[in-house]
Write a structure and sequence with these properties.
six-stranded mixed beta barrel, five-stranded mixed beta sheet, 22% strand, flat
Length: 788
Amino acid sequence: MNTNLDRPSLKWSTQLDVLPPESTPPLRGDKITLPPSALEQLLSAAMVTVANTAQPQTSTFDPYNPYSFAAERQAREQLVERQQQLPHPLTFRLVNPENGRIVFAGIREFSAGDNAVGLSSFLRQSLGFGGEKSLDNINGTSTGAEVNGSGIHEVTEALAKLTVHVQELPKGTYVKLRPLEAGYDPEDWKALLEQYLRDNYTTLTNGEVLNIPAGKETFRFLVDGLKPNEEAITLVDTDLEVDIEPLNEEQARETLKRLVEKSKRAPGTSDGSSAGGKIFIDTNETGQVRPGDYVDYTIGQWDRTQNIEFELTAFDPENDIDLFITPHGPKHRSRPRETEHVFGDFSNKAFKRIKLRHTNSELDNAEALWVSVRGYEDQVEDAQAHVPIQYNLRVSLTDETSTTATAHTTMTDDIPLGPDEERCTNCNQAVPKRTMFLHQNFCLRNNILCPHCQNVFQKSSPEWKNHWHCPHDNSYGNNPSSRTKHDTLTHAPAICSFCDYNAANTPDLAHHRTTTCPGKLILCQFCHLQVPQQGPDDPSADSAEVILSGLTPHELSDGARTTECHICAKIVRLRDMTTHLKHHDLQRLSRQKPRVCRNVNCGRTLDGIGKGGEVRVQGSRNDLGVCDVCFGPLYVSMYDPDGKALKRRVERKYLTQLLTGCGQPWCRNEFCKIGRKNLGLLQEGQAITSKEALSMIKPTLDNLKDMRAPVHFCTDEANQKRRTLAEMMAAEGGEPGSLKGKGREKEGFGSGYDFEWCVAALEVEGGDLDKGRGWLKDYAPTRAETAR
C-alpha cells in the first residue's frame, strides 16, 4: 500500500504583464487567467514524495531482526516515486507593486499569453488597474479603486505589472457584510447574494466591495470580517454564516425607516400594488400598480385551438402602464420584465393590446401564460410619481373570423356630412354652412392641426406645447415623459447584464434575453434542474451541433451522459434517447400479432414471445391449433392422415371431463364436471349421462377442423388465471373511433390492446398484471395504432 507523506504547502510566485481589457476574455467575479507555462511550473512545484511500502525491498528482511530491519528501512527510503498534486481550489494572492494593493482570486483557466495575466473587471478595479466599467458593477460604481483629488488612480496599461503568489486559503465559516447604502431589504438580496457568490467567486478578501446586480439596481456590500482567516477565505464546498451589520447608527435608523415605508406599500395593501395571482379567460381583472412595480398574473388553462387576446386599459389616460407576456415552460422560466419578455407592448398609449395566435410556435409546450403589468416610472419627480395606477386587464379567446373593437376613436373624416353641413379645413369637424364663417374665425384663432397625426389641439394647451413626433418612426405623444420613455426604450442602446451583449434597444435586449443569452434560465430535460442555458464549458449557441439538435448548449453537454435503455438494455446517450425510442416504436408498430391457443381456458400463445417482444411466428404446430401443453395428452405417433384417430382421442377427453371431471377445485371449464359445478351449471349430486355428454360435444367434434371454433380442455390454475386476466386487460379502453361524432375524447378510450397481445404480455411476465401492462406499453401496438 502507498503511504502519502504530509504534503508541504505549495510555494510559487511570478510577476506578469496585465492584459488590457480588450485582450482579456470575459471574466466574472474574482477569476483570472494564467499562461500555460504557469501550470507547468505549478505542477513542478507541487511534487509530492510518496514511499512505496507494498513489498519488502530486501530479500533477507525479517521484522524481528534489527539488522535486516535497518537495511529494509534504508532501501525503502531510496525507493520513492514523485506525484503531481495541486490543491483544490487553487487560489492566488495578487499584489499590485505600484500601490501595494492585495486581492485574492481563483483561477478560470490557463489560456493567457506568455508572461501575461488576464483579470476580471472586478479585480482590475480592486487592484487599481484603470477605471473602466466593471462587469460586477453595471451602474458604473468603482470597486476598491483609489480615489483622490485627481480622480481614480490609473496605471499605464503597457507598463502594468502584477505579482502573483499561489496561496492556499482555509474554507470560510463566517463573513460580516456592511451595506454601503441604507434601505436594503434582506428579502431582495439574500437569494441573489447566495447565487452570485456561488457562480462567480472562489475567494473573499477582507475590505473588498461586492456589487450584486439585480436588474437596474445594484446592492453594494463591504466585506468587513472573515473567519477563520481574517485576511481571506475560500467559498468552495463550505457552509458560510453571513452577518449583516449597518455601517453606523444613522444608516440603521434610515434602513428601518425605509423598511417600514416599504411594508406600507407591500403588494395587496391600499397604497401598494395588487397581489396578482391566477386569472381566467373572459374575466375582467381590476387592480393597481405602483410606478416601477410589476403585478404578475398566471393563466393556467385555455383553449389552445383558439387565439387569445389581452387588453390592458389605464383608468386615467395620462398614466402609463405596460403589458408583458411570457409562455411559461421548459424554455422560459423567468417572469416577464422590461428587459426579458417574449411579447410586450410598452407604447405610449393608455390602451394596450396583444393578440396571440394559437399557431404561434412560442406557445408550444407552454405550461401556463405569465402576464405582468408594469407601472412606468417617470424620471421626472412630481406629486403623482408614487400614486398607484388603476387599470383593467381582460383576457378573451377569439377565432380567425372574429372582430374586436379598435383602440382608436373613429376619425371625423369618416362621419358622413348632412345636406346643410360642410367640413372645417382646420379641425375636420362637420359644421353647418350658415355658421362656417364664424366657426373658422374662432377655430383658426384657437386651434391648430398637427400635419403628421391629424390631431387637433388648442394652441395654448400644454398638450400642444409638449406634442412630439419621433423622426425615426410613427410614434408620437403629448408630454415629455412619453418622449423620454420612447427614446429610452426604442432608440437607446442596452447592454445585457449577463453576457455584455450590445443590443440596439430594449426590445432587442428582451429578444436576446429570451433566445440566445447564455444566462437564460431553462428547465433541463436531462438533469431536471433550472439552470442557465449555456455554461462556461458548454458549446457555443451558434454551433452547428446545437442548431441541428434543437437543444440548448447546456442540454447538449448534459445530454452526453449515458444511460441504459429500459427496453433493449443498450447504453445510449441521454440526448439520443428520444430517437432511440422512436426506433423501438417503429419495431413495436410493425410486429405481427401473436397467435393464441385455441383452448378457451389456456393463456398461452402458440409460438411463444421473447422478452424483448419478438414474435416467433411459425407454421401450424398441430391439427387442433392448440399449444404444445394442451396437445400433449392427445399426441400419438401413429399415421393419421384423415384425423379420425385424433377425433376419437378428443371425444374421449371430452367424455372423461364431463363424466368424471378433472378433480381440480379451481377449474372453470364448462365442459368439465368440476368446472360446471364451480360455475353453477350443475347442481350438487347431479350427474351428466353419456347421452347428454355426447350431444354436448357433437358440435365441437363436427367443427374440429375449423380453427376459429374454440375447444374446451382443462388446464392448470396459473394458466387459467392468465387467460382471465388477459380478458380483463383487453376490456380496458375501448374500440378506436367509438366516440366519433360526440365532440369529446375520453382519455385512454381506444387505447386498449388486442386480446392476443394481452395474452402474450401475461405469458412473458408470468401473470403479473402490473408488469404485463408495462410490457404492453413497450412492445405492443394499441388498437388505435393498429387501425391507422
